[in-house]
Amino acid sequence: MDVIFGLIPAMIVLGLIGVLIFFWAVKSGQYDDMEGPAHRILDDDDMPEKKDRVDDLPK
Amino acid sequence: MSQTTPCFHCGLPVSEHSGCEAEINGEKRSFCCAGCLTVCQVIHDSGLDAFYSRLNYRSAEAPPPEQVADLEQYDLPELQSEFVRDLGEGRKQAHLLVEGIHCAACVWLIEKGLAAMPGIELAEVNLAHQRLNLRWDSSSVKLSAIMLRLGRLGYAAAPFNAEAAEGSLQRRNRSLLFRMAFAGFGAMNIMWISIALYAGDFSGIDEQHKQFFQLVSFFIATPVLLYSGWPFFRSALLGLKQWRLTMDLPISIGSLSTYAYSCWVLLQTSGEVYFDTVVTFLFVILIGRYLEGLSKRNASSAALRLLELQPRLATRLLDGHGGEERISVRKLQIGDRVLVRPGEKVPADGVVLSGESYVDESMLSGESRPLHKEKGASVVAGSINVDGSLTVEVSLIGADTTLARIVALVEEAQGSKAAVQQLADRIVPWFVATTLGLALITFLYWLRGDFDSALLAAVSVLIITCPCALGLATPMGIAVGVGAGAKRGVLVRHGQALESLASITHVVFDKTGTLTEGSMRVADVSTGNGYEPERLIALAAAVESHSRHPLAAGICAEQKGARLSCSSFVSESGLGVSGEVEGQLVMIGNARLMLRAGAAIDEQMLYQQQQIESEMGVALFVAVDGQLAGLIHMQDRIRDQAPGLVALLRAQGLGITVLTGDSREAGNSLKAELGEMVVKAELMPEDKEAEIRALQQKGEKVLMIGDGVNDAPALARADVSMAMGSGMDVSMECSDIVLVGSDLGRVGFAIALAERTLATIRQNIAISLAYNLILVPAAMAAMVTPVFAAIAMPISSLLVIGNAILIRRRVGGFST
């Protein structure tokens, strides 16, 4: 049973790392828009080619 | 097939005669308006047709928003300094608030449409907040060009200073989220350790292991108490310093005493610890606080929004050689002469030197009709010049303008508003006194035995009375009430407003735009010389479609059928408009114009005109080829739901007052339609605010409902305020509640919702007190064990949460 003296603190440290990752995720804005990115990943194809000058854009 | 095919771009039904059809991609498509057509054309020409295959029409249902005028102003360095971040080497970053985003297809269209532009480094749309994060190279593309491109794609963009708008509140909410997450992490870990301890109580446990588990609990509970509990301790301390007892005080006493006792047990190396109770308790309370925090919005941004109404650019006339220059409004001096073109906003308060025009001051004065201004008349900053050019001599600038005075009033009213004492806070002093008293009695009673068991009994009283349910009673009720309101078009911007709304005694309405629709519509058409009313409107609409006058929109909206074409359109400020329709000269305007056209006005029509004008309507004469064809009566109509609402409020015994900037006659005609009420007319913004204050001094709890800038100080002053969703942003920023879609009928629902919410909060408080009443005797009898506390305490919280959720069902039957 003595193994728990090492395992329990180790588990808590692991959990703490999870909490820190969550804090980082919130701070870096990953939870700011819950909807957009889900669609964006599907929409990466058919990109129009980049125009060289603003005047080339259709009016 | 039915005649209402949906618009290809926005999905709104297309009326038969909108006349907007185009061939897109080889197929004929119809559109509801020219705006949709142009936008679709641009999208097609840019090769972004895939937008339409992604579009979900049901979520769209709105033509593109109106474009922002004067985009070049955003290229001015002094303006950019307010919202653009300079990343060096000409690279810049800004956040834009984009109007018109409604679904994922929009995100795609904006990102792809902008990515094709040269110089754009990053264009990322936040769908949830309708924001665009933009990074660009200012040496190859200007900000105004980017915004113009957005406009072409059918979106209106405005600079957005995120920090100013919601920085502090968002930071507070985020810190609450962190504290809640941390407490949640602690609660989950401490729970499985506690289960081992509980199991040990029943089946026996090695003393060494028990102490180890207790020690681990201590190491989990300590950081949670310090980090997650900190906001409670600080606010309880702050409250104590000001002799105020808030809900945070019993929360602090409960958690700290439980923690301290457990630490004492740990040192004694005998007895039971309650660390798990401390952590779970903080976690549950923080959930409630976080939910409550989400329902709050920053109130302070109202003043910022107000200042946005002021134009940023002015056209200053140079002395001597007759030139002109575009300068920032801040550089204007008293005595400068500025030119205000049709459609522009007046940049500063001043006096008209030359020119004549109609000026729309509705947002400042509440006057629904555009006012005629000529030489010598005074104009105010922020009002809109409708049809003629004006040269204005600047007489007041900066903090002295009417707009700036309104800003000052709003800030003053918001600052002086005392925090509403929540129901739960009124119970707190009694609660604290009772629990401390009971704990003391318990301690003294058991002291006859030994000190240890006396301390245990006294502390278990404090543990069991830990105000978990009491702390949740208000936040949960408000969170559910706010959610139920949002579903039915009542946006509660400030959760506490629901509590105040339930106890109002007096309702104050603004007239223009709130009780009435706020725009001039055709009320009646009388004709002469054998013209049909439809024909008259068709002729008038053909001419008016070229005019920018607010009345013109009202006439065009009335016209049915295909629009006739009009040539050689002339607009004469102070008189009216004229144009050629189907070979006939059509003139629309006042009596002076008719006189000049040689059209005779008969007695009866003259009488009608006086009648209309005495009721604050507008009478427009129409002449065709110099012959009087008829009279169009324009009037600002009362909203359909207004009579029903006024009757409902009166039935509930609430006092009703209407405040208006319009004349007395307008107020009297309102009484005729809505029944007896107090109507105060010809009020300036500061008078409205003073009226509210006077009512409050009489002991009334005032609900103010308004929509304009001129209502802003009154809205900020009232105990609770509601703004119309179609009104000015400023009025919404000043208000506690926004009515989506400007549906007055929802006022009744909002009041019912508030009453239900307050009733539920009361029940919740009763439940939590009853729970204490039942369990305190057990604690005083020293019968509480950690397992007992762990099982009994969540029950009260669950009861309170469940009861709060029922609010949704309780207001379900109320028809709006």
In short:
The complex is a heterodimer of chains A (59) and B (816). Chain A is mainly alpha-helical.
Secondary-structure element series of chain A = HH
Low-confidence stretches of chain B: none
Which pair of chains forms the biggest interface, and how many residues does each contribute? A-B, 36 and 42 residues
Strand order of the largest sheet of chain B: 17-29-28-27-18-25-26
Helix/strand class of chain A: mainly alpha
Radius of gyration of chain B: 33 Å
Detail the poorly predicted runs of chain A: none
Task: Kindly state the percentage of residues in helix of chain B.
Answer: 40-55%
What characteristic shape of chain A results from the CA principal axes? elongated
Strand content of chain A: under 5%
* Main pleated sheet of chain A: none
Oligomer: heterodimer
Rg on CA atoms of chain A, Å:
23 Å
Averaged pLDDT of chain B: 81
How large is the count of helical segments of chain A?
Answer: 2
Percent of residues of chain A in helical segments? 40-55%
Distance between the termini of chain A: 76 Å
* Count of runs of 4 or more consecutive helical residues of chain B: 31
Number of extended strands of chain A: 0
